[in-house]
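Hello,

Following up on my earlier ticket. Below are the two sequence lines again, exactly as submitted.
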Amino acid sequence: MRRHARLEHSVWRRWRLGLALAGGLAVALGGWTPPASAADPLEVVLGGEPTSMDPSVDTLKSSLVITNTMLETLAMNTPQQTFKPWLAESWQLVAPTKWRLKLKRGVKFHNGEPFDADAVVYSVKVFRETKGLARGWFGFLAGAEKVDDLTVDLVTNQPSAIVPSSLAFLYVFPPKYHGQVGSEGFARKPVGTGAWRFVSWTPGVQFKVEPNPDYWGKKPTVGEVHFRWAAEGSSRVALLETGEVHLAQNVPPALAERVERSGTARIEAVKSIRKVFIQFNINEGPTKDPKVRRALNHAVDVESIIRTLFRGRAYGRDKGINLEGFEGYQGAKLQPFKYDPELAKKLLAEAGYPNGFETTLWHPIGRYMLDKEASQAIAGQLARVGVKAKLEGMETGTYFGKMSKEKVPGMNFFACGPLYMNPIFCPLVHHQPGAAFAYGADERTAGFIKAYTETLDETKRIKVVQDFEDYAYNEQIAWIWLWHQQDIYGASNKINWKPRSDELMTFEEVSFK
Amino acid sequence: MKAYLQRRILFALIALAGVTVVVSAMLHISGDPVAVMLQSGMASQAERDALRRELGFDKPFVIQYLNFVRGALRGDLGLSLRFRQPALTIVRERLPATFQLAAAAMAFAILVAVPIGVLSAVRPRSLVDYAGRLVTLVGQSIPLFWLGIMLVMVFAVRLRWLPSAGKLDATSLILPAVTLGLYPMARIARTLRASMFEVLPHEYCLTARSKGLSEQLVVIRHALPNALLPVVTVIGLQFGALLGGAVVTETIFAWPGLGWLSVQAVQARDFPLVRAIVAVVSMLLIFINLLTDVLYAYLNPRIRLG
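Thanks for your patience. The regenerated structure is below:
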């Protein structure tokens, strides 16, 4: 009997526990209300979380979206793919290897430190010595010298026309604070001169910035901005649909329609600055012959791939090396390669391959939009002109390691998205002998690149870059030109916002409806 | 008992060394971290070599590993390449979220599995049994990512009851815990059902019945505690699996745990961070296994550790 009573007691206890749990759940559920009203902060979901707020350590675009709210650069890239003076008000050449920068007066860091020549000198040093992703980006700089408080000289190793455009990546650190906490401390608690300042960063959960009341420039219309991260595309879309966020980065093309149908959000898509192409190994095998390379350009039906595989969400057919807005851009002057398999076969026969040949197409898996699927489609199209391309797909890390260490035979799938609005950015990576992915490097491209970087006269320089493009595109043909990616964002119907082409998101112009 | 524990700890250390060697070797042959870091292609070969030297990747694999061990003995697992922060700090920040999710998933699994397991064993081939078996079958065969996305579609997007992703308030835990808990729930329920079948015909249950105790009491007082013994082992193993295998769930729900972090670390060839994650998770697994064994021996007087 006693045992019986105890048992009943324990059963009751369990019930009590269950009820308590259920009650707790109900309270918790009731306590959750979806956010979103004009007074609320702007909520943004990005594809990945930054590793560091030090832009010399973490240069990924999804990280810079956050960094850029707090830190500023000497020049600023514009949505028109040009750049303009920013913290540096002007620059001019005072000696062949010396650029003199005049700095903006009266700018202060969030912690009160003044922005001046010392800050620029210090920042150049940080970028030169970093062990992070920006290592080598300012390899052309020998250093910086203070002239007076608001004048600083950037000294280059050789005469360098790249300097002005590269200023758009030269972030300025507060020397005292950064020196004190080091890159390690700065990573978690950044201090800059930007329109917003750091509030908090809960790893994996949320990053908050608030308006900087002492900002020197135009004050943004929204208040706090909150960032969070979801690696999975459908999760970002769900957050947008429920109204938990106002802006979502990288909406998967397959889910774009769902966003449009949601009634609460819309798609904002833009032609990306990122060029996608296939590089040839121009030094060995059948792809050594420019005629073969021309033939393969005619063998790929870019438009049909965009139509079917990308559901129209890419821009083709790409041509040339330069990009709209950059100096020397030739626009309609260059003729795109036409899809013409008969011409391709004819050219192959002329080159001595009437029955085609066997080769390899290397490609990353998951680095660029639909990279694997596109490579498969291209291999299929090449097969129709007799070129049997064996597909070698690799995970991103392995891929970049292999492509940079070896010069693989055949062809490899690549993309270039310039960080500086400068026509030589991609050639420095793909056409400069000794560069990491320089499959298109030969004596002539090396000569053009040297001439471009060392020609300080703008008119002459533009001639050089156009001659280079004519050569690389019409004669050398080191690539199969494919398309530009489309960047797809989701935006809540509650806000006004426009995307940019450079894979960055800015919030200065955001307003609630 | 003491000798047993000593032996287990020795085995644990051997296992730990083995795991870190294997992981380090696999990473080492899978690619060059510097090539991955500098994939924008802006750095010259000289800069690449310099960075490789500064980070110690120019040294032979054995030296790199020994340096890691030397640091690890002092509790220093190195700086993460991508974060430029101590790898251990980063793991420590993410571990609680993973642990919390695993614990919640396990709590959900046990709370659901025990009634299902017991009821379907007590009333075999009844409606309850069939329903229970159907639920466990589904629970074991449904793909995690699909289930996760469906739960989000229903409870977050349609009904707006719960947040769809992230970890901004307490309710964020519910959907990922249910998603992650479904599989262990099914495992536990099936194990319990089978084990109840084994236990119920035993003499002590017959004795209890013949004493005139109600069937309910026989089941709860006499059969269940014995039937739960194998379940303890299953729970231990499953909990370990939850800690190490929550990658998909954490990704779908943007849960700030170790899962997604470890995928990124591997992709970035962030050797120190991957090693730190693997070392910490392996240590936890070894500890949980040990705990399960000790607990099992404690609960089951027929087992003696030695």
